[in-house]
């Protein structure tokens, strides 16, 4: 080995070691988080609290998947909710029409979503900025219109009626509320862990490079179109996971799951929590659901209150809550080191 090669090896070894250490740390944090969430039913009999966590699981997966596009790749999608609705409807229809085991329906739903996302993404990711945003919105409106018009198959504006069958598998009975709660927490933690590994992988840093300067990334030999398409499909798959959790929670699927407002909620969640930190969308999810549950209890003008909150974050903080906290801690640390 030459001296240059030896120097490179000495430089790269700590990098790979640090990446492996970070991966093990993320897994440990995920296990601790799941243990805490899964043990919650042992300490409280509040069904409302368990329902709140299930809803956070569905919307948290959905919003974090959107952040793979917005925060890491610089692709603002106005139609990401179509995959949330697609996951809910595909899973519900497979269970109702075919009666297969839940794991089979789960995998089939992810496969269907990936194929449809690949077709839509192949068109959308060629476009830039506002054109990308509005074409994704157009596709969402198309899927929503299809759900409404194909009433014999989807139930139309009434949604999927008759409930979603929940046959037991591997000793897990999702008809049991506690089992459903634990399964939702498991899907949330697994989904977040997978997205975290994607964000911290070389592929994730390639996404950041494309976000910052796509032209330079192309000059460096990166296939920008293929990379964008890949993350588009991945984000769609994780959004579909959130849709399946919601379908199991409400035992059905409704056109509102694929309406354009669901995409607006995901963007609002990312604005609340922040897009430059990985857990920002989860913080935004908790904040939004708490705001909805609290405000609607006291006033019917919840839209005005949420609008004021948006203005506060957009004009006041000019960033999400977790972004603001992370920046504040960074400034305090730098000031401490300067002394």
Structure description:
- The chain is mostly helical and 339 residues long.
- It has helices at 3-38, 40-43, 47-73, 81-97, 102-124, 129-149, 151-154, 177-200, 202-212, 214-219, 224-250, 260-273, 280-298, 302-317, 321-338.
- The longest helix is centred in the first third of the chain and has 36 residues, at 3-38.
- The chain starts with a helix and ends with a helix.
> What is the mean pLDDT?
89
For the biggest sheet, the summary is: none
Q: How many strands in all?
A: 0
Structural class: mainly alpha
Radius of gyration, rounded? Answer: 21 Å
Helix content: over 70%
- Measure the end-to-end span: 44 Å
Q: Which of globular, elongated, flat, extended, rod-shaped describes the shape?
A: globular
**Count of helical regions:** 15
Task: Detail the topology: elements first, then pairings.
Elements: H1 3-38, H2 40-43, H3 47-73, H4 81-97, H5 102-124, H6 129-149, H7 151-154, H8 177-200, H9 202-212, H10 214-219, H11 224-250, H12 260-273, H13 280-298, H14 302-317, H15 321-338
Helix pairs in contact: 1-8, 3-8, 3-11, 3-12, 3-13, 4-5, 4-6, 4-11, 5-11, 8-9, 8-11, 9-11, 12-13
């Amino acid at each position: 080995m030459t001296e240059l090669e030896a120097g490179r090896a000495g430089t790269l070894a700590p990098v790979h070691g640090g990446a492996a250490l970070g991966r093990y740390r993320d897994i440990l944090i995920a296990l601790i988080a799941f243990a805490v969430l899964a043990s919650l039913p042992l300490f409280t009999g509040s069904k409302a609290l368990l329902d709140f966590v299930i809803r956070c699981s569905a919307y948290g997966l959905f919003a974090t998947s959107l952040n793979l596009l917005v925060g890491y790749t610089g692709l603002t999608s106005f139609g990401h909710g179509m995959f949330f609705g697609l996951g809910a409807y595909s899973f519900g229809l497979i269970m109702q029409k075919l009666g297969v085991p839940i794991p089979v329906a789960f995998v089939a739903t992810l496969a269907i979503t990936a194929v449809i996302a690949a077709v839509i993404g192949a068109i959308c990711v060629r476009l830039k900025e506002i054109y990308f945003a509005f074409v994704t919105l157009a596709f969402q409106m198309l899927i929503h219109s299809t759900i409404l018009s194909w009433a014999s198959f989807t139930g139309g504006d009434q949604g999927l009626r008759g409930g979603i069958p929940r046959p037991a598998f591997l000793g897990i009975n999702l008809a049991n509320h506690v089992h459903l709660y634990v399964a939702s927490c498991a899907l949330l933690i697994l989904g977040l862990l997978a997205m975290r590994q994607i964000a911290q992988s070389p592929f994730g840093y390639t996404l950041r490079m494309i976000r910052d300067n796509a032209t330079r990334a192309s000059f460096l030999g990166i296939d920008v179109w293929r990379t964008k398409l890949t993350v588009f499909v991945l984000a769609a798959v994780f959004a579909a996971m959130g849709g399946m959790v919601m379908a199991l929670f409400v035992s059905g699927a409704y056109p509102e799951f694929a309406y354009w407002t669901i995409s607006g909620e995901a963007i609002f969640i990312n604005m609340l929590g922040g897009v430059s930190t990985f857990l920002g969308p989860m913080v935004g999810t908790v904040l939004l659901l708490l705001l909805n549950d609290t405000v609607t209890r006291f006033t019917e003008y919840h839209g005005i209150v949420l609008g004021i909150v948006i203005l506060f974050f957009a004009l006041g903080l000019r960033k999400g809550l977790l972004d603001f906290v992370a920046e504040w801690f960074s400034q305090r640390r730098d000031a401490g080191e300067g002394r």
